TrEMBL record:
It comes from the Bacteria. Residues 11-116 form the SnoaL-like domain. Transmembrane segments: none annotated. It comes from Marinifilum caeruleilacunae. It holds the Pfam family SnoaL_2. This is SnoaL-like domain-containing protein.
Amino acid sequence: MKKENNKQVVIDFFEKFSAADAEAALSFLHDDVQWRAMGLKGELPISGTMDKDGIAELIVMVKSAIPKGLHLKPIAWTAEGNRVAAEYESYGVLNNGRVYNNPYHFLFEFTNGKISVIKEYMDTLHVKETFID
């Protein structure tokens, strides 16, 4: 049952993240959470590791760039022990009319029922082309 609980925590976290409800989203995270977006450090502003404060800033930034919200759709799951692997797809329209539609793979690790590690794999070229270029 713990695996199902962990999956539900991920679903609830992304529901609140998508709604730009930072306070509620952060409630699913361990105080020492680390979110690592894969990519060469320095190549993109999103690459590297964020702590809980950084995640709160990310939620605000996403809401600012995508005012109607970033929809995150779960595609597939694998859960084992304190880890959940999840495939997601995002969709959102930026202020400038560009469409952000990115596939992701996330690996979540849990400590005491809260997300303590997030590893994010995504199409970093799409991030660059949509948000930077």
